[in-house]
Amino acid sequence: MAIRVLLVDDQPLLRTGFRMILEAEQELAVVGEAGDGLQALDQVRALQPDVVLMDIRMPRMDGVEATRQITGPGRDGPAKVLVLTTFDLDEYVVEALRAGASGFLLKDAPATELVQAIRVVAAGEAMLAPSITRRLLDKYAGHLPSGEEPVPDTLHTLTEREVEVLKLVARGLSNAEIAADLFVSETTVKTHVGHVLTKLGLRDRVQAAVYAYESGLVRPGAQ
To answer: Does this UniProt record's set of keywords contain Phosphoprotein (predicted)?
Structure first.
């Protein structure tokens, strides 16, 4: 089945460009467009897309709030949000990740990268490398806890090894790198990551990295 994509951007010319790129791919289907966050919510309800390409800065309702309403608690729909931004360190991207986005992509990314990002997000994974998440969090460390706050109770549900894995995810390591660091198989790492996400109620490793910083488990800039 084709991956159903909704395009959300306040610039019609950009939406047209994205549509042309995506409709050239057999396994992708652009099911609709929206020019702001409010239209996006209506379109998500009506069209049930698998992936929403979401601009950040739009009139009426921005991409952060729209993302929060699409992916927040109690939402049972399939839609995953892939944030589009002009700047690779847009401060709003951090808020979008916190709101439930599965990752972000630069608007000037190559067409092949856009297509691959949609495939990855539709499969339920995070499309951006955790190292990018860490770079974002480090830049906007002033918005995050100092690390002196009490550790959240949910963190105590993790085993020692799961905490280790969570720290390495937040540091930007891939599953292969974590496996090498801990002297275990990639399959074992994938299982641990799955347990971490389930126990903490997180969607993907992007949110896991955000959680690690916000909980104070990992300090911005720490190695």
So the answer is: yes
99-140 pLDDT tens trace:
888 888 888 888 998 998 898 888 877 766 555 666 666 665
User: Nearest-CA neighbor of 4 among 29, 27, 21?
Assistant: 29
Are 119 and 111 in contact by the 8 Å Cβ rule? The answer is no
Residue pointed to by tokens 């700047």: 87
- DSSP β-ladder status, 80-85 and 104-106: parallel
Residue range 70-79, pLDDT digits in tens: 987 656 567 8
DSSP readout, 86-112? SSTT-HHHHHHHHHT---EEETTS-HH
The answer, as to whether pTM is greater than 0.85, is no
Which residue type, as a one-letter code, is found at position 176?
Answer: A
Contact, 172 vs 138, CB < 8 A?
Answer: no
C-alpha count within 13 angstroms, C-beta hemisphere, residue 149: 13
Report the share of the chain in percent with pLDDT over 90. 43
Q: Which two tokens stand for residue 166?
A: 């969570």
Give me the phi and psi of 52, to 5 degrees please.
-110, 120
On the CB side of 51, CA atoms within 13 Å amount to 30
Residue 23 to residues 2, 16, 41, 47, 115, Cα–Cα distance (Å): 11, 10, 22, 17, 10
